[in-house]
């Protein structure tokens, strides 16, 4: 049972092999949201009592979602049918349209906590914790899953009526990265890095103040200043950039300035093993850069726009800890400086603010979902599976589309 459910869900039920299952709906607004939900859904995957379904609400950054769901092989319910069908549980990492669903809803963040501050009139607040994020249309969810106890104070400030619904569960990406750090040598071999070769991960979130807007000037410097026999570069660009501008355009822009030692991670690929393999991270104020604090790689920041950063978040702490990339000093010297000034304890303290439940997301989140479903949990501890090895860097060419098989 994969691909699209083309017939109305109930009219086609007699054709299913397993009936009378509890239904779980994953609401996939964007590729980023979908990738976060996949980690969560793995906790339900082997339970024969459950049928997991997917739906894709209309979203400005949803262009990559149909291909993502097709590759995933999930049973897809059209959005117009999803809003008229009751489900036993819905999961969403974004608020758009979820108030239309007939299901107890669990919301969770799609990145490293709640990093972004919004300062646009009535929308002012921390994105993800505002009333319009947690209670769109005035309807509260069944539960709000947050990664850290510190978020509870923010929640009380922005949407106090949601505070009794909050559950501190931890962060799945944090736990997968932490469980995979020991595999760094294997990831580097898989990427095709030779002995003595250094990997620089250049990371961008999305939006007008992201580092992507600086790539036009940065890419030629990476090519000209980093000796190709010693350095490899991989670009990690937020999926919203791909969806917003189009895959063809992003590849066209980046292929113009990229040299043979520069690889471009496709939006559907898993960035986490690549981040673990990096020797340096050049990034901005997004989640991926923040997750880099787990890896031991020195970080250089391309910018830290105070107007977009939640001042109480670990991203704000990183902004005053990591050195800033200079447009005039040689890159090799800056990388050496970042390595010499790196203090693991400082970055570990920042990483410790991503989650207050390190290593316990699977346990906490599974318990919450089964509680909402009204079922007993499976009689085994949920496992945090290490990340798979990435393909070789040479297969990720800026001008060519697709993730290698």
- Overall pLDDT confidence: 91
Q: Classify the fold: give the CATH topology of the largest domain.
A: Rossmann fold
Please state the second-level CATH architecture of the largest domain.
3-Layer(aba) Sandwich
The parts where pLDDT drops under 50 for at least 5 residues are 1-8
Q: Can you count the helices?
A: 16
Written account of the structure:
- This protein is of the alpha/beta class.
- It has two domains: 3-173 and 356-373, Rossmann fold; 181-355, Rossmann fold (3-Layer(aba) Sandwich).
- The protein contains 16 helices and 15 strands.
- It has helices spanning 31-41, 65-72, 79-82, 131-134, 150-158, 172-180, 184-191, 215-225, 239-245, 247-257, 272-277, 287-291, 314-319, 331-341, 344-351, 361-373; strands at 3-4, 22-27, 50-55, 75-76, 89-92, 105-107, 117-118, 125-126, 143-146, 166-168, 198-204, 231-237, 262-264, 280-283, 299-301.
- The strands form three sheets. An eight-stranded parallel sheet has the order 1-4-3-2-5-6-9-10, with helices on both faces. Strands 13-12-11-14-15 form a five-stranded parallel sheet. A two-stranded antiparallel ribbon has the order 7-8.
- Strand 11, helix 8 and strand 12 (231-237) form a beta-alpha-beta unit.
- Helix 9 crosses helix 10.
- The longest helix has 13 residues, at 361-373.
- It is globular and about 60 Å long.
- The two termini are 23 Å apart.
- The relative contact order is 0.14.
- The model is unreliable at 1-8 (pLDDT under 50).
